Amino acid sequence: MGVTEDELAEFRDRARQWLTEHTGAPVPPEDVATAKRFQAALHDAGFAGITWPAEYGGQGLGQREQLAFNDVAKAFDLPVAIFVVGLGMCGPTLVDLGTDQQRSRYLRPLVRGEEIWCQLFSEPGAGSDVASLQTKAVRDGDEWVLDGQKVWTTVAHLADYGAVLARTNPDVPKHSGLTMFIVDMHAPGVTVRPLKDMTGRAPFNEVFFEGVRLPADSVIGEVNGGWSAAVTMLSHERVSIGAAVVRRSDPLAYSVLAATARDRGVQGDPVIRQQLAELYARQRALQLFTARLRQEAHAGIAPGARGSVAKLVGALNQAYAVEVAGSVAGTDAIAWEAKNSAAAERAVGMNQAPAAAIAGGTSEVQRNIIGERILGLPKEPSVDRDVPFRELKVGTQR
Ligand SMILES: Cc1cc2nc3c(=O)[nH]c(=O)nc-3n(C[C@H](O)[C@H](O)[C@H](O)COP(=O)(O)OP(=O)(O)OC[C@H]3O[C@@H](n4cnc5c(N)ncnc54)[C@H](O)[C@@H]3O)c2cc1C
Prior knowledge:
Layout: H1 5-22, H2 32-44, H3 63-73, H4 84-97, H5 100-111, E1 117-120, E2 136-140, E3 143-151, E4 161-167, E5 178-184, E6 190-195, E7 204-215, E8 219-220, H6 226-243, H7 254-263, H8 270-298, H9 306-329, H10 341-352, H11 363-373
Parallel strand pairs: 1-4
Antiparallel strand pairs: 2-3, 3-7, 4-5, 5-8, 6-7
The structure holds flavin-adenine dinucleotide.
Residues 85, 118-122, 127-128, 152-154, 204, 355, 358-362, 364-365, 368, 380 line the site of flavin-adenine dinucleotide.
């Protein structure tokens, strides 16, 4: 028997009350200590890991509570950005595929924000076609030895652990010889270097592995079953990116841009009104669509390729929001008084927005998936599916 309406209303009230007392002005991304304290307190209050199993530190509740919490949280600024990869991708993958020992060891500190996780898939020669990756792990007695380079790794500079995808058998076709491992980001042989994006911030990194030793029990899922583990993680990623809570102070949120239009006295402009109405409709439609995907997931219906719809629409909405931001802010979008922190935040948001069409799989790739798996269009030609990886010309392999 699920939660009753009364219980759900009480849960919402409790969440609203707690968030009112424990959140305030946005916390700057570099303030890791405050973010960690917040996440632990959120867990103690019963609002972190809402749908995760109780024996592994979750709250053991359902999707309805999760949706209710997300809905309430929209009105607040939660300093949880550094935990998004762990909570939205690595954790759910461990819940699905981890051994009991892995779940007992890693999930509780992850959900409490005590340990930060990153996802190490992309490489300089393998992004959209991630199955072409060249980082390798070679078995040596009871351990594996990891060598290679990853790139664009979000929060690697703060991470304690990562989920890394490596090649464990080059003699079979590219999708068949991969394995996913848990890697200790503080282990000898791991080097993390920051990469700046066009906002001037460095949210991601390049990561080098040189002879990093991984214990045999660090495999997530099956040896050489890494592709299926990666697909599991990417499906969580697409829903979680699409569903990302629009923060109260998100400079590209409908409500923030509408307030800017009022402040600048342009809310009566018919073109701007039209744009704001369209942005509201698009952002709201995506929220409802991802809410439905989550409810269905709870009922045992996998999001499948519809996760790609959420991801694609999220990126299109971001691009449209940049256009609307340009209209409502006018010349303030380009140059502003130093004391105008809202304009500075908006500029950061506008410069970050294009990443939404790349991170987590590009919009072109999402369109391919939607075309093939939802619309039933012909598959893209693939000439290398049955060729042993060793014989392919990919990355630096010639
Ligand atoms: C902000 C941000 C954060 C990220 N965080 C992480 C992270 O934490 N961990 C991680 O592993 N990676 C991360 N990435 C990397 C991301 O997953 C890759 O950038 C993405 O998969 C694209 O790969 P690529 O950059 O190598 O581009 P490429 O794959 O080289 O693509 C180049 C261009 O070709 C197009 N293209 C490629 N293949 C096709 C095709 N089959 N059909 C049509 N067009 C195609 C692409 O759409 C793109 O326009 C992050 C990226 C960004 C921007």
